[in-house]
Amino acid sequence: MYRILKKEMLAPKIKLIQVYAPEICTHARPGQFVILRMHEKGERIPLTIADSDRDTGLLTLVFQEVGKSTTELGMLSEGDSILDIVGPLGTARDIEKLDCVVCVAGGVGVAPMYPEAKAYHLLGTRVISLIGAQTKDMLIFKDRMEKVSDEVYYSTDDGSFGHKGFVTEILCKLLEDGLRPDEVIAIGPLPMMRAAARVTERFGVKTVVSLNAIMVDGTGMCGSCRVTVDGEVKFSCVEGPAFDGHKVDFDELIARQNRFLAEEKLALERYLAGVGGCKCHQK
Amino acid sequence: MSSKVRQPRQEMPKQQPDVRSKNFQEVALGYTEELAVAEANRCIQCPKKPCVSGCPVGVDIPEFIDLIAKGDFLGAARKIKEKNSLPAMCGRVCPQETQCEAVCTLGKRGEPVAIGALERFCADYERMHGDPLSDAQRSDGSSGRVAVVGSGPAGLTCASELAKLGYKVVLFESLHDTGGVLRYGIPEFRLPKAIVDEEVEYIKSQGVEIRLNVLVGATVTVDELFQEGFDAIFLGTGAGLPYFLGIPGENLNGVYSANEFLTRVNLMKAYRFPDYDTPVWVGKRVAVVGGGNVAMDSARTALRLGAEKVTVVYRRSRAEMPARLEEIENAEEEGIEFYLLANPVRILSDDKGWVKGMECVRMELGEEDSSGRRRPVPVPGSEFILDVDTVISAVGTDPNPLLVRTIPGLDLGRRGNVIIDEETGMTNIPGVFAGGDIVTGSATVIAAMGAGKAAAHGIDKYISARNGRGM
Ligand SMILES: Cc1cc2nc3c(=O)[nH]c(=O)nc-3n(C[C@H](O)[C@H](O)[C@H](O)COP(=O)(O)OP(=O)(O)OC[C@H]3O[C@@H](n4cnc5c(N)ncnc54)[C@H](O)[C@@H]3O)c2cc1C
Ligand code: FES
């Protein structure tokens, strides 16, 4: 059992929770994730580690309410408990000092970007962050990212903050203006990561993406999370979630994300009908 | 005595095929006391006892059968447990037809004694009428501390055996529940999970501490376990890495590995979606590729989830199918179709990325390969298309690489299997032992149990010697 020690609403439908998980925190490195299960009937939900503190043992997770399970998770309050958490899972990113990296993060993807940006920053790498959201209210981790970045650019779909349009347009502009980072890291919705990888490919800039494939065990046992990278099948829970963005077959992965769409919709509708007019998930 | 030989083998009552193919309850219902006694009476108590040497753990088969014949069912159960701590499981899942029953003297001229069914009867009788926990001795932990990794049959048996020897055992499991393949792979209708639960209760009552959701190698490393004061570590991490077919289209929507399909259904209880949160999708026409227990389990599970037609595609003939005979027969009775001597070459896609068919090629058996089986070779120009919307690939698994690759210097075989000293179960790293599918590749429950037990004794010797006790 993991008691929720802190809960924060970062944006509408984007929430942060903190639990005490010292074993996971001692071993977690940037790019890794955990799988949690809320209760006996729950799904195994993979969430990238947004922060982990070795000294306090506090594990920070950030999620967006999309389906039934994340909506239900969002209903939990401080003091409530999560049944199981296992991790850290996945291959950690090998982070070493570089001259310059560009972090392209979209939506809730800013949270998993933060530990990577922080790790580069601590090594003295110049970090340029490009952060995109639908609208101003949906921008999260702004202060944190500003603290670990040398420059930050924002974009919103509706122009309510920063550049109006896609975050990848800023990336394109910077590269066109001659910026040549050692590496671009893109974390966010699949179409955003695909767009980022397409932009950087034109300029021959190495690009790492972090994939959020559908998982079950998260330990390499089922192959639910398989993706094609450079023509080979890889299990993103073990060999990933980070891969070379120029080699990922995004079209296949985007199709695979729809495998359980009908079931997910049914589960969410049934759940929302069950919780009735309750407004908790808006809080 | 000859009159006994003429008695037919007692059939075990089962749910009717048209009923059971729509539910997840156990198919075989088990012998009644009368049937068990009648079957026990068929045993001629031959002096050579070939069955005992056919049993990987050497259960005293004629003796327990004799006790059944005399009506001492609890005594029979105790007799089995002297050698096999998990009889309720083995009675259900062992491939008896290639083990004890294969060498039964009666089998030479007629049908062998139904040893598996009798074993199961004893275990079930004890569960219902006795107190299975009564003989569990709580370990005082004075012999030393051992970490067992993986709670499949290898890990469970090793832990139980070590507890008997007075060790403090901590059993680590990366999933949120115990049992390994017994839990996530073998379906409820073949091995009720209540039986796995009871076994786990038993080892808990022996004082074994179980820590779920710990992926050893990630949540805690082997080095850290030694630093924490464990005297030895047993790796029973299984063969959990599924292969895929390596053909075009295998990442389409509607293609599952058997492990994914069965884990969703068994471990996550997707058959009770949406009451349980994890979904599973099965179309109307399902192809299952493979010929082992995993393929039979997948096919029969798909049927129970509502598929209209399920076809098993296997590249050799029925005689070579590695599945337990009983499960092949059960599958046939339930209406599963078999496309034998056929192999998939590609999976066809509709315009949205979902399966709309599977192209196969007919095979014929050529020369014998290294395994002594005739190698299937494709018949040129014999391609045909199976009209399916779901494909489940059950073509095998490799040893789980996750933990073993975090242990520097550990000797591994070609397929990533851990290499051990057969007798002691020890790897090349002192204090690190292994057994079960992680060593042999995908094998059987009983073999994993045997390995877990052997390693427990190897560990006991190792620790005793180090502490200057015994030897
Ligand atoms: C669907 C299916 C049907 C089968 N049917 C039969 C049958 O009818 N008869 C038969 O005899 N055999 C059958 N088998 C084979 C049999 O189940 C296996 O041979 C046996 O379970 C192997 O036991 P094990 O203990 O070595 O490994 P497993 O049962 O695989 O258990 C390994 C456990 O270790 C855990 N683990 C792995 N890595 C770590 C780690 N790093 N840290 C912590 N935990 C870890 C895994 O999660 C798992 O729970 C079947 C297999 C399958 C998949
Ligand atoms: S989630 Fe099962 S293998 Fe990756």
Topology:
The complex is a heterodimer of chains A (283) and B (471).
Chain A: E1 2-11, E2 14-20, H1 22-27, E3 33-37, E4 45-53, E5 58-64, H2 68-75, E6 81-82, E7 84-89, E8 100-106, H3 110-122, E9 126-133, H4 142-148, E10 151-156, E11 163-164, H5 167-176, E12 183-187, H6 190-203, E13 207-210, E14 226-229, E15 232-235, E16 242-244, H7 250-256, H8 261-275
Parallel strand pairs in A: 8-9, 8-12, 9-10, 10-11, 12-13
Antiparallel strand pairs in A: 1-2, 1-6, 2-5, 3-4, 3-7, 4-5, 13-16, 14-15
Chain B: H1 2-6, H2 17-20, H3 33-40, H4 50-54, H5 61-69, H6 73-81, H7 87-93, H8 115-129, E1 144-149, H9 153-164, E2 167-172, H10 181-184, H11 193-205, E3 209-211, H12 222-227, E4 232-235, E5 241-242, E6 255-257, H13 258-267, E7 285-289, H14 293-304, E8 309-314, H15 325-333, E9 337-340, E10 342-349, E11 355-368, E12 374-378, E13 384-386, E14 390-393, E15 397-398, H16 401-404, E16 432-434, H17 437-440, H18 445-466
Helix pairs in contact in B: 3-5, 5-6, 5-8, 6-8, 7-8, 9-11, 9-18, 13-14
The structure holds flavin-adenine dinucleotide and FE2/S2 (inorganic) cluster (FES).
FE2/S2 (inorganic) cluster (FES) is lined by residues 215-218, 220-225, 235, 237 of chain A.
